[in-house]
Amino acid sequence: MADTRTPLLEAKGICKYFGGLKAVEEVDMQIMQGEIFGIIGPNGAGKTTFFNVCTGIYPPTKGKIYFEGEDITGISPEKAAQKRIARTFQNLQLFKFMTVLDNVKIGCHIKTSSNLFDAVVRTKKYHRDEEYAIEKSLDILRSIDLYEYRDTMAGNLSYGMQRKVEIARALALDPKILLLDEPAAGMNPPETRSLMEFIKMLNQEGYTITVIEHDMKFVMNSCSRILVLNFGEKIFEGTPDEVKVNQEVQSAYFGRGLVAGEALK
Amino acid sequence: MSKVKELFNKYQVLAYIVLLALLCVVPFALPKAVYVRYACNILMYATLAGSLNIINGYSGQTCLGQAGFFAIGAYTMGALSTKFGISFWLLLPLAGILAAFVGFLVSLPTLKLKGIYLSIVTLGASEIIRIIAQTWTPVTGGAMGIKQIPYPEMFGLDTFRPKYYYFIFLFIGVIFLFVTKRVLQSRVGRAWISIREDEIAAKSLGVQTSFYKSLNFMYGAFWAGVVGCAYAPFVNYIEASQFSTDTGFNVLAMIVIGGQGTLIGPIVGSTIVTLLTESLRFLESWRYVIYAVLIIAMMWLRPQGIAGASRSILAGGKIKRKKQAAGAEGGATNG
């Protein structure tokens, strides 16, 4: 299936070493406009590190990142956000002591531009920006079912809801691509199901989504293509059905040898 | 419901007006001139501590060098008014701008530093400014200092009397609070607070943290400079030892005790520390021991300070789930 379009986000030969530890080794990835792309792999496979390289948290040791065909290797996270690459974090980086609404309002930062002068004089721009931030945030909160919690402190919400706040905050950037790092971690099955629906809905609205997830039901049901990492290396890439039957993926997850072989039968 | 809120807002303005009127009566109501001097000190230090609170309390950086910015303001007034006879009212913003510029320079190396390393750089910068003030004799008078700094003109009042000078400090304090409240309720203020709460998250949402940290330093330094400018004629005589790190730590003590991350905190802190300083004078240097104990106790029991932002990372980073119901009452603490 040769695709001639420019990928939205492309990684070419990405390596990331921490001293002698090869966290990510020669990983290629192409994410097309409008897909849900999954990244899976056992714990410690380098998924999050790879994500961090893609969003500018770490510069790669080797390799290039392209966004809409433009080289963005080693840009800062702020710049990545300004290019509207939005992300969430595996271990939740919420503004815990702020209300849910304020959390999302900070997400509107790059979509507004009022400065110190506007704030002091309360210019038209200030009022326009504040109105925009509030309306936009409330819209997002309504769509993600957090509207009634808008005035609750984010840190007081349940784990699953905090994850949703993070997604809401990322959506405030009007992202061209949304990178979700284990969005369903800590959620119970009904919560996971509703999150899955929500992510699919976002995708239908036109958002391109990349997701790291351990919940296989989630990944197999919603992703169009899946990248499998193990010990920092890409071991497979393909559709969910191909991944399910791939020998290497199975051995990465279940191990090799007689016992594992027995278990699979 | 909205009517109730409207009514409350109306009364809020009224409350501010009453409070301001009361503050205006204070210098005439106090029985002794020396008490008026204390009141002046409280107001002055409240604004100075407020300017430090902008940096330490809102963007979560640790600046120990506020005395340096304060000195820039004081020497701007001292030097330019005695040598060129420039009006105090013109020098007031100029002192702020100069201090903000120095604040910008100090912020440059500190953008990549955090925590204790940042503190040491700011402390060093403050000392450098003091040493320049001590040795640059043609401008700062060196060890002799600058004498007879002219009193500001204000509606023909005798501003050399603290009774009237009080209004200059009140004016600066009110303007500071008014402007700062507006800034904090804007995109800029939210960016500062987001840096305090979680810098990585702020970055990932496109907040240019270096720019906003720099702006934060400049804003804090600006007001320290303005207060410094008002301080010089008040004491009439300035020399380098008035701007030692002791002054910086004194102001830091105010926000640690009074509270960080709220507008009221520094005012509380300034009142407590100034009154303690005056009432404990008979203990001489021993009173610093009392400060030390107070600061340690405060950091232990209530890290955000008496009136600090309880609902912030400053309070020790723990969320009290018991108070979940109370948590819904809105973001007043960060206002």
Structure description:
The complex is a heterodimer of chains A (265) and B (335). Chain A has two domains: 1-84 and 175-265, P-loop containing nucleotide triphosphate hydrolases (Rossmann fold, 3-Layer(aba) Sandwich); 94-172, no CATH class. Chain A contains eleven helices and ten strands. Chain A is an alpha/beta fold and 265 residues long. In chain A, the strands form two sheets. In chain A, strands 6-7-8-3-9-10 form a six-stranded mixed beta sheet, with helices on both faces. In chain A, α3 (100-107) packs across α5 and α3 (100-107) runs parallel beside α6 (159-171). Chain B is mainly α. Chain B has a domain at 32-243. In chain B, α3 (66-84) crosses α10 (209-235), α4 (88-110) packs antiparallel against α10 and α7 (162-184) runs antiparallel to α10. The longest helix of chain B has 28 residues, at 2-29. Chain B starts with a helix and ends in a 34-residue tail after the last helix. The chains are: A alpha/beta (265), B mainly alpha (335). Chains A and B meet through α2, α3, α4 and α5 of A and α7, α8, α9 and α10 of B.
Essential attributes:
heterodimer; A: 265 residues; alpha/beta; Rossmann fold; 2 domains; six-stranded mixed sheet; four-stranded antiparallel sheet; 11 helices; 40% helix; globular; B: 335 residues; mainly alpha; 13 helices; 70% helix
Which stretches of chain B are poorly predicted, pLDDT < 50 over at least 5 residues? 322-335
Compute the number of helices of chain A: 11
Number of strands of chain B: 0
Q: What is the H/E order of chain A?
A: EEEHEEHEHHHHEHEHEEHHH
Distance between the termini of chain A: 32 Å
Helix amount of chain B, in percent? 55-70%
Percent helix of chain A, as a range, is: 25-40%
What composes the largest sheet of chain A?
6 strands, mixed
Highest CATH level, the class of the largest domain in chain A: Alpha Beta
Structural class of chain B: mainly alpha
CATH superfamily name of the largest domain in chain A? Answer: P-loop containing nucleotide triphosphate hydrolases
Order of helices and strands of chain B: HHHHHHHHHHHHH
Q: What is the number of helices of chain B?
A: 13
Give the C-alpha Rg of chain B: 20 Å
Q: Give the overall average pLDDT of chain B.
A: 86
The gross shape of chain B turns out to be globular
SS content category of chain A? alpha/beta
Mean pLDDT of chain A: 87
Give the percentage of residues in beta strands of chain B: under 5%
End-to-end distance of chain B = 22 Å
